[in-house]
Amino acid sequence: MTADTVVPPIVEMTGITIRFPGVLALDKVDFTLRPGEVHALMGENGAGKSTLIKALTGVYTIDEGTIVVDGRQQSFSTAGDAQAAGISTVYQEVNLCENLTVGENVMLGHEPRRGSVIDWRRTHAEARKHLVSLGLAIDPRSSLASHSIAIQQLVAISRAMVLEAKVLVLDEPTSSLDRGEVELLFRVVRDLRDRGVAILFVSHFLDQVYEIADRITVLRNGALVGEYPIAELPRDALVTKMIGRELEDLATLSSSAHREIDRSGAPVVKATGLGKRGILEPADLEVYPGEVVGLAGLLGSGRTELVRLLYGADRADEGEIELHGAPAKIHSPLHAIGRRISFSSENRREEGVVSDLTVAENIVLGMQARQGWARRLRRSEKDAVVTGWIEALGVRPANPNALVGNLSGGNQQKVLLARWLATAPELLVLDEPTRGIDVGAKADIQKKVSELSADGLSVIFISSELEEVLRLAQRIVVMRDRRKIGELESASTDLDGLIDYIANEGEGSAA
Amino acid sequence: MTATAVRDETTKESRTMKVESFLGRHAALMPTFAALAILLLLFAGAEAFLRGDFITPRNISALLLDNAYLLVLAVGMTFVILTGGIDLSVGSVMAFTGILGAKLLADGLPVVIAVPAIILGGALIGLVIGVLVQYFNVQPFIASLAGLFLARGLAFVVSLSSIKVEEPAILWLQSTRITVGSWYITPTGIIALLAVAVAAFVLHLTRFGRTVYAIGGSESSARLMGLNVARTKVAVYVISGLCAGLAGLILTAYSGAGYPRNGIGTELDAIAAVVIGGTLLTGGRGYVVGSMVGVFVYGTIKTIISFMGAEQSWMQIIVGALLLLFIVVQRAIVARSEGRR
Predict the structure, then answer these.
(1) Residues B221, B203, B33, B66: is their CA dihedral positive or negative?
(2) Mean pLDDT score of chain A
(3) Which of A218, A245, A272 is the last residue before a domain boundary?
């Protein structure tokens, strides 16, 4: 770590505070970045990583604090400002234009010109030069859309090179890459580091962080936990720092994982060979009364796809579904709701809450769907249900007339949960119900799921946070590459066992 | 022998790969080529049907003359549609600027004042729409609909009835025929072709033009890439307004009068021509030359129908069918490029 004392920092952020309506997203956070280092920014979902990055890259304006780049105090109001100051960003979802060529995407806005006329030959030659310097031998005249996400990400990095970025921000660049592609990316990152570029790296893969980073800054709930050289922060210490208070909060939760489930009767739902070509290989799934079945696997492993087929949101092209032992067909979500199956989507904003409606209106939507649109729900009935659930789940503010769009993520999720619980389901499917919400809300939701299942509700629980799945579910179905690879009893495994199973359980040995 | 077979195989493979990479690079050109093919088909069909009376220098020259105003409108519309927007105001703006010019001339103002007033009047309305779209976050459809009503209203404020233009400089634009054999072109036709050429230059050889395409591809990406999205988006509506003003001038010269009811529904003709010419309504893909082909397809259908003495309603039915065809073709292209990843 020679960079420590010798080189002055290129980015110094001090006392950064950002407020969103009702939420303190960042609370006096300090962050420094030095040339020639890979600096990992770590924290759980909702810790404020993205907010900090967006403050640095000019997408959000800061409410308090100072940003000093290269010795000069800056106040960015657009992404262009940050780029002009030498800060380039590569986002998880590649932010390039697919309708243009690779070379154009690299050079856009910086094309060599004669007068004001773009010199296309030199543009493409220069693009090729930058691509090659990153070890990319692709035709700059080919269309961007014809390349994989990994290549597109490298193209985005080439673009940063054109801008002569002194700071390169990589926001979850590896989440959709395979192992080989990650290697390629890391080779480029190391190369840039050696050339003196300061790299801010965000990833939720610990292995990758330990592979590439020199220094780690940990955020938790919008506040700074600390900055550490990687050698001084072993993995378990990092995880503790990241989840910190949550451990204490959630430790008090009675784990429902060890509850005995009576599997002698007919399952509430039983799917046999449920699949759809190109989406999901045929998979079996059964859920018994009062059981919480966890679906574990990486993003894109087929978890969501499986439950969407079960719920009728997508049409399966093979397989059977039995409800309480009787064959059933589920054609549509409405059909599923009528059969007392409810599904809360992972896309809270797009497929979940209706931001422009109030809390109360959002909650009664599910009931109304079940009732049929023509039959009115009685007002007193509605009010009773709404206030009941607001209280039971602790929605804040406890105001049925508040617009859902103004609520925090955690409270939106509670409203969504209330909506589906109000339909009195027998089977509740929760897809990432705790993603990106604060710890308190997370604990509330887990507690509620645990309680309701103890009272006989069947739950399918999908989460990327494996601890959560292990804590709640009695049985865990593991998915990988759009395929079910097996099932585990929670009681007989632990986190390491589950991670190992997700990562390594081989072909054919699955149940 | 096996070696030759293998080599055959590989050359065949590389040939198909070449074809594929060509198609991959130029997928966006396909709808424009399709439009060109349809235009040629229309020509050939009409020629056969009318026994050689259709493809004559006179007819082809008239095609440009009769559709010069529409061509200019389509050029402006192409800029807007490439960013993913729409401009419904251009028909009305053309009527307004036309009648405004006629009125100014009738009031005795010189051409050097009237003509800039016509063109800048259009640009001004475009500016208002652009500002509404960009800074007040109004949907382009609604903002330009407001522009449509505003301009039409203003046209009626200027005059309720037609105003004849007797200014020789204006009439010269229309009556001058530069002839080569039995081909001819009028200054209005030259203006229209120049508009196409300038637009093609701007779109393909300037940073502004590339920003237009980038915005159509992904506005948020364009913004994050540090391109000046706000200025560009306002500018495309100004360009569209400017073109509508220019079209107003051409139409006034063409009909020898300003008339406040001119161009009702012409904005839809312009949009149809742009779409037929292969520009994606969602933005980011298309060519201004395609829009020119689109205008000629539109004009040719009109000519054929009047030649055949059929009802003009057939015009709309055929244009409708063509639009439908092109939108389906475009969807297929978009779906293919999405499916490739």
Answers:
(1) positive
(2) 84
(3) A245
**Is residue A210 domain-shared with residue A111, that is, in the same domain?**
yes
3-state secondary structure string across A94-151: CCCCCCCEHHHHHHCCCCCEECCEECHHHHHHHHHHHHHHCCCCCCCCCEHHHCCHHH
What is the per-residue pLDDT across B6-27, written as a single tens digit (0 to 9) for each? 444 444 545 555 665 565 566 6
**Interchain contact A195–B (C-beta under 8 A):** no
Q: Cα separations (Å) of A188 from A135, A138, A172, A219, B331?
A: 8, 15, 15, 27, 37
| Boundary-marking domain end, from A223, A245, A267 | A245
The tens digit of pLDDT for each residue in A71-106 reads: 888 888 888 888 888 898 888 777 899 889 999 999
Residues 26-85 on B with a CB inside 8 Å of A are 27-28
- At residue A301, does pLDDT exceed 60? yes
Residue ranges per domain, chain B?
Answer: 30-335
Would you say A322 and A267 are in contact if contact means Cβ atoms under 8 Å apart? yes
Note whether A330 and A458 are same-domain residues.
yes
Asked whether residue A506 is domain-assigned, the answer is yes
In total, how many domains does chain A have?
Answer: 3
Pairing status of strand A167-171 against strand A87-90: parallel
Contact residues on chain A for B206, CB-CB shorter than 8 A: 116-118
Which of the four pLDDT bands, split at 50, 70 and 90, describes residue B261? very high
Do A211 and A119 fall into the same domain?
Answer: yes
Contact between residue A40 and residue A217 where contact means Cβ atoms under 8 Å apart: yes
User: Between B224, B285, B340, which is nearest A99 by CB?
Assistant: B285
How many alpha carbons fall within 13 Å on the CB side of residue A372? 2
- Give the range among A66-80, A95-109, B115-129, B203-217 with minimum mean pLDDT: A66-80
Q: Would you say B97 and B249 are in contact if contact means Cβ atoms under 8 Å apart?
A: yes
Give B82→chain A minimum CA distance, Å.
Answer: 11
Q: What is the pLDDT of residues B286-309, one digit of tens each?
A: 999 999 999 999 999 888 888 888
A66 and A118 inside one domain = yes
Share of chain A above pLDDT 70, in %: 92
Tokens of B303: 């000519």
B30-335: CATH topology is: ABC transporter involved in vitamin B12 uptake, BtuC (1.10.3470)
For position B231, what pLDDT does the model report? 95
Establish, for the pair of chains A and B, how many residue pairs have beta carbons separated by less than 8 Å: 92
Domain limits at A485?
Answer: 253-340+426-511
For residue A222, the SS3 value is: coil
